[in-house]
Design brief:
Mean pLDDT of chain A: 90
Low-confidence stretches of chain B: none
Number of strands of chain B: 15
Strand order of the largest sheet of chain B: 3-2-1-4-5-6-9-10
Low-confidence stretches of chain A: none
Oligomer: heterodimer
Distance between the termini of chain B: 68 Å
Distance between the termini of chain A: 36 Å
Strand content of chain B: 15-25%
Helix content of chain A: 10-25%
Structural class of chain B: alpha/beta
Number of strands of chain A: 5
Shape of chain B: elongated
Strand content of chain A: 15-25%
Shape of chain A: globular
Order of helices and strands of chain B: HHHEHEHEHEHEEEEHHHEEHEHEHEEHEH
Number of helices of chain B: 15
Number of helices of chain A: 2
Structural class of chain A: alpha+beta
Chain lengths: 92, 385
């Protein structure tokens, strides 16, 4: 089971769980699984076309999936996938 | 000034003694600090520790940009200020506090908002910028200004219990590192990501993250250690976990990717979707387009529909589907009129706004009514769908 780290701003959509275990072989499968189990997460992660929003970065291990195979990036048993949205604190 | 010409008084040497005696730091690093010019944008949660530690470290010239006034609710985390400063402009209260910490440094105040109109002029006077602002438009503004001017941008950002740090646009061995647009090409639409005012922030968090930011500024200035360039650090205060990711430059970065299209500062509030008013786009009627085609006028026709739509019916446009418009902006001409069309005129208007806002195009015309309108008006023999 791969481990997905849910960022603070999105934890309220995952019953406040900071880490979710997902059985998956690609990042796409992880995203599908998450949005299926946590429907409110969907609009924060995906745009109207169902693609990952560009202000949400996904890292497999220490690498940005944009530098790997995007949503087709493979995920193993002990992979840690991190979801990291843009944050700017304060006003906006 | 060349740092090698920097001299210290007896008092300064005594003050910075603990830096000077570190074997891998020494007098040379201290000279570099004194010669350095650092602009700190925002003197709030992040700015407080950044300013305090840079002043303590002996950075010779510090600029502070903030248009705000000290509020009591700031004191939960903005440790630069005290109750006596409530009601005072932050930059002035900051200078008082910092000069009392270190009278040997120079501080310049900018009691103003950083905008596209003044950012280049202000940042130009400094070597390094530490961005501790609290909104997305300014993040992109600072980023773009630093890339356009060739300045290092030490970035840090916080929300609730999480923080991020990286060093953008850093040059090492002639190579330029990633910048904010490589990491986050577009900002979240307003309202999707809550702010500290709505979401709150653990007061000590900016203290931690801002201190890391100050650390990176010091490393950039002195050349000591490994600067956090090409790396993106995130910290989760609740779980006490941190992770450092590898980040790279993105070839489609409109600032300094393979086909740079941004050569000036833009309207960042518009970029971040904060301007409610929809800017009208220039339009062209189907009849006018038809005439241009028949006359053989010199122009480019762009079709922003999907491939399967173009397969049904086409009027000769170059296909650049809407979602790919930014990354393919290099294909769009700037030197002759460009007509953009879709099925009915909605998507093409969106494409034009995006291109105008992000890349400063001024020669784009929307086909009113799209290809359907065109078929109805001038070529009824074509297939509608």
């Amino acid at each position: 089971m791969a481990t997905v780290i849910i960022p603070t701003p999105l934890r309220k959509f995952t019953n406040n769980t900071p880490r979710v275990q997902v059985a998956a072989t690609t990042v796409q499968e992880i995203v599908d699984d998450l949005t299926l189990n946590f429907p409110e997460l969907k609009r924060h992660l995906l745009d109207e076309q169902g693609k990952l929003r560009t202000f949400v970065n996904v890292f497999v291990g220490d690498d940005d999936i944009r530098n790997l195979q995007q949503e087709q990036t493979a995920v193993q048993e002990n992979t840690v996938v991190s979801i990291v949205p843009a944050i700017a604190g304060g006003r906006a | 000034m060349n740092y090698q010409d920097i001299k210290f008084s007896k008092e300064e040497l005594a003050r910075y003694n603990r830096h000077i005696i570190i074997p891998d730091f020494g007098l040379e690093a201290q000279q570099k600090l004194k010669a350095a010019r650092v602009l700190v944008v925002g003197s709030g949660g992040l700015g407080s520790p950044v300013l305090l530690y840079l002043a303590a470290a002996g950075v010779g010239h510090i600029g502070i940009v903030d248009f705000d006034v000290v509020d009591d609710s700031n004191l939960q985390r903005q440790v630069l200020f005290g109750v006596d400063a409530v009601g005072q402009p932050k930059v002035e209260a900051a200078r008082e506090r910092l000069q009392s910490l270190n009278p040997h440094i120079d501080i310049t105040l900018y009691n103003t908002q950083l905008t596209s109109a003044n950012a280049l002029d202000i940042i130009r006077d400094y070597d390094v910028v530490a961005d501790g602002t609290d909104n997305f438009p300014t993040r992109y503004l600072v980023n773009d200004a630093c890339v356009l001017l060739g300045r290092t941008n030490v970035y840090a950002s916080i929300f609730q219990f999480e923080g991020q740090v990286s060093v953008f646009n850093y040059v090492k061995n002639g190579e330029v590192g990633p910048n904010y647009r490589d990491l986050y090409p577009t900002p979240p639409p307003p309202g999707l990501v809550p702010s500290c005012a709505e979401g709150g922030v653990l007061g000590v968090l900016p203290g931690i993250i801002g201190s890391l930011q100050a650390l990176e500024v010091i490393k950039v200035i002195t050349g000591v250690g490994e600067v956090l360039s090409g790396r993106f650090f995130i910290f989760d205060a609740l779980n006490f976990e941190s992770r450092t990711f590898n980040i790279k430059r993105n070839p489609s970065n409109p600032l300094n990717g393979e086909n740079p299209t941004i050569t000036a500062l833009i309207d960042y509030e518009q970029f971040c979707g904060m301007k409610a008013v929809e800017i009208p786009v220039k339009e062209i009627t189907a009849r006018d387009l038809y005439d241009m085609q028949v006359r053989g006028d010199d122009f480019q026709l762009i079709d922003v529909r999907e491939p399967h739509e173009q397969a049904i019916v086409s009027i000769g446009g170059e296909l650049i589907p809407l979602a790919t418009v930014s990354e393919q902006s290099g294909r769009i001409d700037r030197n002759r009129p460009v007509v953009v069309h879709c099925k009915m005129g909605g998507r093409s208007a969106k494409a034009i706004r995006e291109l105008e806002e992000k890349f400063g195009f001024t020669n784009l015309y929307n086909l009113k009514g799209g290809i359907i309108g065109y078929i109805d008006e001038v070529q009824p023999e074509l297939t509608k769908y």
